[in-house]
Amino acid sequence: MTRFFLGITLVFGFIVSPPSLAIAATDGCPNTWKFDSSTNNSYSELMAAKEKLQGNMVIELGDFEFSNFAGELGEMPKPAAYLVNPSRPALGLPDLYLYGKTTVSRNYSVQVKDCPGKTNFLIKRGTLLDLYGLSSASAFSKTTAKEWAAANRYKFKDYISVENFPACLESVKKSFESPRSTLDNLTQYPYLFMGMGGFFSSSNNSCGIMQSSSPVFTKTYADYLILLELSPGCSWPLGTRMGVAIASGKICEFAIGIVSEGWAPIDIMYLSDSMKINGPISILESFKVTGPATLKPRTINCVKGKIKKKITAIKPVCPTGYKLKT
């Protein structure tokens, strides 16, 4: 009878206080560790192992891997190669609307004292939205500039800024009507982002939103404006975040979004656990940008003595030794 009650007590104790999954998954040397790659728990388990082993464990960050590309519009084609570069991906804040539900994994190399060599793990980190601290169900809130300003009057420098906010954003959008340059059949526009090097990096371009503390106020506000891309496969063809480049014949839709009271890096590469967005992201009125008109091929006549050649191309040039016939 004593054994029976002892057995019942042990079973009940196991139910009430089951062993830690993180500890169980990382007992022994790393080459024996088992992570559940089908959930996001694997990262927590890895961090729990680090906390348990402290200085006896070394973690080295490896390449990223992306899969199941999707966002608010549903399944998406794989984005430009540079955005998902395994070693230095540029996928991030401007892409959250289109690719926020994309699965993000990262490789980690682990070495534990008195254990053989290094062991590599591909750890699922969740979706891009998860990493930025946003739930996929309520990551975005669509509103208008006027409505947002009215609901957030306390975030502006003064009442005049509140009233002028919609007009200020309209003037920002008009900057796209004057492209920075046109080169190689692409039209390049300013890059709208309130961050280092962006159009909104100066407080003068914040449209009246407070960007720092003041002796007058008891709270520091850190709302900032970002440019969200709403059209897949449309912009960034140059592989750079320094400006928006719209390809010839393309029409791209964008929206200015507002991230509230928090700063998040533009690219996932520079994102850390301490940098979370206090969502949702407010999406204001969208607008469209058109690339340069599609250029048509033209034909030129080239001559070399009595030999004649016709060259047809977007930018036709006579071959070496030939002269343009005028």
Description:
- With 326 residues, the protein is α+β, with helices and mostly antiparallel strands.
- It folds into three domains: 2-77 and 103-131, no CATH class; 140-290, no CATH class; 296-326, no CATH class.
- Helices cover 19% and strands 27% of the residues.
- It has helices at residues 2-16, 21-25, 41-53, 96-99, 128-131, 145-151, 159-173; strands at residues 57-67, 70-71, 74-75, 103-112, 119-127, 140-142, 181-183, 186-189, 224-229, 244-247, 251-259, 281-290, 298-304, 307-313, 323-324.
- The strands form five sheets. It has a four-stranded mixed sheet with strand order 6-12-11-9.
- It is flat.
Mean model confidence by pLDDT: 78
Oligomer: single chain
Helix content range: 10-25%
Q: Biggest β-sheet: count, sense, barrel?
A: 4 strands, mixed
Order of helices and strands: HHHEEEHEEHEHHEEEEEEEEE
Could you say how many structural domains there are in total? 3
Treating each run of at least 4 consecutive H or I residues as one helix, how many helices?
A: 7
What would the principal axes of the Cα set say about the shape?
Answer: flat
Radius of gyration: 27 Å
Q: How many β-strands, per DSSP?
A: 15
Structural class: alpha+beta
Report the β-strand fraction as a percent range.
25-35%
Strand order of the largest sheet: 6-12-11-9
How far is the N terminus from the C terminus? Answer: 112 Å
Which spans have pLDDT < 50 for at least 5 consecutive residues? Answer: 1-22, 193-203
